[in-house]
Specification:
Order of helices and strands: HHHHEHEEHEE
Number of domains: 2
Oligomer: single chain
Largest sheet: 5 strands, mixed
Shape: globular
Structural class: alpha+beta
Number of helices: 6
Low-confidence stretches: 189-204, 206-226
Strand order of the largest sheet: 2-3-1-4-5
Mean pLDDT: 79
Distance between the termini: 53 Å
Number of strands: 5
Radius of gyration: 20 Å
C-alpha cells in the first residue's frame, strides 16, 4: 500500500469530534459558495458540483489543522458574505465595461496592503474573498508581516488606488467583526513582532502601512503597469 493510501486510510479511521465535524461542515459550505461564485450562477448542478469538489478536497487533500482562535459571530458572518457577493456583482460589471469600452487597455498595478487579522485561518479566508472578486488577485502573502501583494486590474488614478485600499480595509474590518472581536479573542501562541517589510521588495507597490496610513513613498515604489 502506498504512503498516500495509508495516510488516507488512517484519516478515515480517525474518529471525529463535534468540533471537527462543525469545521468540516463550514469548509464544505464555504468551498461550495466559492464554487458557485466562480460559475456565476446558482443552479442545482453547480451546488451539487461544489459539494462534490469540497468533499473530494477534504478527503484527498486535507489542509493541516490550524488553531481556531476567537469566535464566530453569525450575523456579522452573514453580513460579510452579502458584502462579498455585492462586491462580486459590482466588480463583474466594472471588468465587463473595461473589456468593451473604447480606448487603451486599463492600467494595472501590484499594490501592497498591510492587514491586521491575527489568525492564519482568517487571513486565508480574507485572501480567498479578495481572489473571488473580479479585478483583484493576491499574488503573494507575507504571513509573518501580514502583508498582501495584490494585482489590481484598474489602477490608472490615485482615486482608484484609494478606493482599492478602502475596499480592502472594509473587508478586513468585516472579517474581524465576524471572527476576531477583541472581547472574545484568545490567542494560543503569541507571535513575534512583525518584521519591517523592505521597500525594495520585487513586487512592492502602493502600501497601506500599520495604523491606517497609506504608504506611497514615490514613483519608485508605486508602479502602475500598462
Amino acid at each position: 500500500m502506498s504512503q498516500f493510501a495509508e495516510s488516507l486510510a488512517r484519516r478515515l479511521r480517525t474518529p471525529l469530534t463535534a468540533r471537527d465535524v462543525l469545521i468540516r461542515l463550514w469548509v464544505i459550505v464555504w468551498l461550495t459558495f466559492v464554487w458557485v461564485l466562480l460559475w456565476g450562477e446558482v443552479t442545482a448542478a453547480n451546488v451539487l458540483g461544489g459539494v462534490a469538489v469540497s468533499l473530494a478536497i477534504l478527503i484527498l487533500a486535507p489542509l493541516p489543522q490550524l488553531p481556531v482562535e476567537g469566535r464566530l459571530h453569525p450575523l456579522s458572518a452573514i453580513t460579510l458574505v452579502l458584502r462579498v457577493a455585492f462586491e462580486l456583482v459590482v466588480s463583474s460589471m466594472e471588468v465587463a465595461w473595461l473589456s468593451i469600452r473604447p480606448g487603451p487597455p486599463p492600467m494595472t498595478a501590484i499594490l501592497r496592503a498591510h492587514v491586521s487579522v491575527r489568525s492564519d485561518l482568517v487571513l486565508g479566508l480574507l485572501v480567498d474573498a479578495i481572489n473571488v472578486v473580479p479585478g483583484t488577485i493576491v499574488l503573494e502573502v507575507d504571513r509573518r508581516a501580514r502583508v498582501l501583494y495584490i494585482h489590481v486590474l484598474d489602477a490608472h488614478s490615485a482615486a482608484k488606488v484609494d478606493r482599492f485600499y478602502a475596499n480592502v480595509a472594509r473587508l478586513e474590518r468585516m472579517f474581524i467583526r465576524a471572527f476576531e472581536r477583541e472581547g472574545d479573542w484568545q490567542e494560543r501562541v503569541r507571535r513575534p513582532t512583525p518584521r519591517v517589510v523592505p521597500t525594495d521588495h520585487p513586487a512592492a507597490g502602493g502600501a497601506r502601512e500599520p495604523g491606517g496610513t497609506q504608504g506611497r513613498p514615490g514613483d519608485d515604489e508605486w508602479r502602475p503597469r500598462r
